[in-house]
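Researcher: Sequence recovery benchmark, item below. Answer with residues only.
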């Protein structure tokens, strides 16, 4: 094989080859970006063995959401069950911490066990992890790599140095590797109590497990269900909800699961676009081969072998594919950045923060993609190369190798491109329509002009609920004195926040007790006024009236009232909260209108609001929501200034506008919609170009036929109509097949894309009709060339 000859061939057909390279570059850019996103999410950033690190959850039969918390007794039973190689119980809380710059910040402290080292499978970078001798309340602390760098400057003598957190002092015994954030933590310490003797029925512990090497998850879930039945049978009747069971999954699936459908669709659509592009490219290079067949015939007559011609063809295609993939890699970086920018920070775990890298995964896949493209391109030319006849070619027959089967294959390639464009386009219009419907859903709360921020109170300074409530009251007054703040309220979790406090609600009905999982939030201040939540009946909580000495009260959402009692007329009804043990029942004093607290993708939620003063488990992390004046959003500086005036040791963090948070809650849907828009546009361009190219190819291999028709008196308009008719036939078949495939695929896409793809015949049919019209217009250029056929020029070929 002569490299110089390959380069001459490439240069000779530079116009067609430029189109080939550009087509490959555009589609490969999207594919490499999708591969890089998937690799960053599901493979690269994790420092532990993602196949064996798991997490346990539990849920009742009536619940749609799984919960993570377990009691110490449940932990001991699961640890001793023999189902797992290791089990670690952990709990976390935000703590106030004075940073290296002297300003307060917050860290996530994780109380865990020595077994967490074996569960994660990651060894410390320096020192050791927690060990069995680190008894409950031990001052030993293992810090993250990020904390080591930010607070200790990466000092190699960090072991043994003091770490002051709030009013506690810990001694650093180890540093974990970069990107290790087990349980999302910044540092890890021993539990405050002994889990082997803890008899508290509360469920504060997250259970991480290390699966056995041969673990089969479906079989393991069956064993966990059996274990759950034993637990329920041995416990008091009021302890567990009906149908309560334990399940397990890989941590990476639990954390990244919500983004998996969008990323999976992005990958699948990218691969489909690459195949369509290759079909287009295959037609282009076959046209190039038609023009080159006389030269190939001469080489065959002079002794060149078919094997050598195939090798040179593959080398030519490999060069084109390599250039196209290389350009695609360069373009893919900007596509990757745009895709990552559309992903909500709430769905990015700490292991991935600032760690999205395009080059690594995309570079590894480039050679395989280039080789695959070159192989498929060569395979499309193989029938013509195999049938090449030196004698016929030297006689000038340009129909060499273009029998009926080959022509049908070329037409099928064109129809396939139209089918793919119709499939992607029809799904795109359905996704866009469904997305618009979801965005138009009534949230039941106000997002414009409202900001939220979180804060963590030091437990030593604010050890109980009353101290935390007094701080919140002072902060509320300070915030309302800021010029841009109209109203302030406090809740446990802001709207659209991913993790919220969960508990169980038990009500005694005529048919017997009924229990269900609910979202719980303590409330201080005019929450409905700040968040714009409507009151269906009754009243909201009154901070002065519903104090610690008053009878326990609550406000519930309409969705909860209707699911438990079958009506929203539930004022003065009583219920118990599972988190309050044997406390007196709470009386319902108000019912809120339906609210989608989790965002437009969520259903109206089962919510319970209780007064701050009556919440014995008021968390140390509070959320402040503030409504601005005249529709303006309170600034983060105003919120931080007010907090510093009350207690400079309490920093505010995660200050965001609710409108931005609402948009971020649709991150997966927005990514899918944007991807479908891009793919639909790309598919349309490829289909139009493919149809025009195929017709040009058919015109090239049949130019003698058109010349003869012109010579015997066929009118130019008739020749043009023949080409247009052939193009319309190809497009019509492709459009109809594409609509049928899209109709069948819509249900699958809808089930994986938040219910955002209901099939819409009118929109899909309109897209198909528009594509058919566009492909008809794309046939005009080949039709004009057919009408201008010169019989004398063609007949001279004989």
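Model:
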């Amino acid at each position: 094989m002569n490299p110089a000859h390959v380069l001459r061939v490439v240069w000779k057909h530079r116009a067609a080859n430029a189109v080939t390279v550009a087509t490959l570059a555009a589609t490969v850019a999207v594919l490499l970006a999708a591969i890089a996103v998937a690799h960053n999410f599901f493979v690269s950033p994790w420092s532990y063995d993602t196949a064996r690190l798991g997490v346990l959850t539990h849920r009742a039969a009536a619940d749609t959401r799984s919960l993570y918390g377990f009691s110490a007794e449940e932990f001991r039973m699961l640890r001793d069950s023999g189902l797992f190689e290791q089990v670690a119980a952990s709990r976390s809380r935000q703590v106030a911490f004075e940073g290296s710059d002297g300003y307060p910040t917050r860290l996530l402290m994780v109380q865990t066990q020595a077994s967490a080292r074996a569960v994660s499978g990651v060894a410390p970078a320096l020192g050791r992890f927690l060990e069995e001798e680190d008894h409950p309340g031990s001052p030993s602390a293992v810090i993250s790599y990020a904390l080591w760098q930010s607070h200790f400057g990466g000092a190699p003598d960090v072991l043994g140095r003091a770490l002051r957190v709030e009013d506690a002092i810990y001694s650093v015994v180890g540093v974990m590797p970069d990107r290790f954030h087990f349980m999302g933590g910044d540092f890890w310490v021993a539990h405050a109590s002994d889990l082997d003797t803890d008899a508290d029925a509360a469920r504060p512990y997250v259970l991480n497990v290390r699966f056995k090497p041969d673990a089969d998850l479906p079989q393991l879930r069956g064993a966990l269900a059996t274990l759950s039945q034993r637990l329920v049978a041995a416990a008091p009747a009021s302890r567990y909800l009906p149908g309560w069971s334990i399940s397990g999954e890989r941590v990476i699936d639990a954390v990244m699961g919500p983004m998996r459908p969008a990323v999976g669709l992005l990958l699948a659509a990218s691969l489909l676009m690459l195949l369509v592009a290759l079909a287009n490219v295959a037609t282009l290079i076959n046209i190039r081969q038609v023009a080159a067949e006389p030269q190939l015939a001469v080489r065959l007559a002079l002794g060149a072998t078919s094997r050598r011609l195939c090798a040179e063809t593959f080398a030519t295609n490999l060069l084109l594919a390599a250039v196209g993939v290389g350009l695609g890699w360069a373009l893919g970086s900007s596509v990757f950045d745009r895709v990552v920018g559309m992903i909500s920070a709430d769905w990015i775990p700490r292991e991935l923060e600032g760690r999205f890298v395009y080059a690594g995964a995309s570079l590894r896949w480039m050679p395989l993609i280039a080789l695959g493209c070159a192989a498929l391109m060569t395979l499309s030319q193989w029938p013509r190369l195999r049938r090449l006849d030196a004698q016929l070619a030297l006689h000038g027959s340009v129909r060499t190798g273009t029998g009926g089967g080959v022509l049908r294959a070329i037409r099928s390639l064109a129809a396939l491109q139209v089918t793919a464009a119709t499939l992607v386009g029809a799904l795109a219009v359905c996704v866009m329509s469904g997305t618009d419907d979801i965005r138009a859903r009534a949230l039941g709360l106000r997002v414009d002009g409202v900001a939220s921020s979180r804060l963590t109170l030091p437990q030593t300074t604010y050890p109980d609920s009353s101290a935390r409530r007094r701080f919140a009251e002072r902060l509320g007054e300070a915030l309302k004195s800021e010029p841009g703040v109209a109203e302030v309220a406090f809740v446990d979790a802001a709207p659209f926040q991913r993790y919220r406090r969960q508990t169980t609600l038990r009500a005694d009905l005529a048919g017997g007790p009924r229990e269900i999982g609910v979202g719980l939030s303590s409330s201080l201040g005019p929450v409905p006024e700040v968040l714009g939540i409507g009151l269906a009946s009754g009243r909201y909580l009154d901070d002065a009236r519903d104090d610690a000495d008053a009878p326990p009260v609550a406000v519930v959402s309409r969705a909860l009232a209707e699911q438990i009692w079958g009506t929203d007329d539930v004022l003065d009804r009583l219920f118990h909260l599972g988190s309050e043990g044997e406390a007196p029942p709470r009386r319902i004093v108000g019912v809120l209108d339906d609210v989608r607290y989790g965002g437009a993708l969520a259903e109206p939620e089962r919510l319970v609001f209780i007064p701050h003063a009556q919440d014995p488990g008021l968390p140390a992390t509070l959320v402040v929501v503030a409504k601005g004046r005249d529709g303006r959003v309170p600034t983060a500086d105003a919120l931080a200034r007010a907090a510093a005036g009350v207690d400079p040791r309490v920093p505010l963090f995660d200050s965001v506008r609710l409108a931005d948070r609402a948009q971020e809650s649709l991150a997966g849907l927005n990514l899918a919609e944007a991807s479908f828009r891009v793919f639909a546009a790309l598919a349309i361009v490829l289909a139009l170009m493919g149809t025009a190219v195929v017709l040009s190819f058919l015109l090239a291999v049949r130019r003698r036929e058109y010349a003869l028709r012109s010579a015997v008196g066929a009118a130019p308009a008739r020749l043009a109509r023949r080409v247009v008719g052939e193009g319309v036939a190809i497009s019509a078949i492709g459009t109809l097949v594409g609509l049928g495939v899209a109709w069948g695929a819509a249900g699958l896409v809808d089930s994986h894309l938040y219910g955002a793809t209901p099939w819409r015949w009118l929109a899909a049919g309109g897209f198909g009709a528009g594509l058919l019209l566009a492909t008809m217009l794309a046939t005009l250029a080949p039709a004009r060339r057919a009408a201008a056929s010169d019989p004398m020029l063609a007949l001279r070929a004989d």
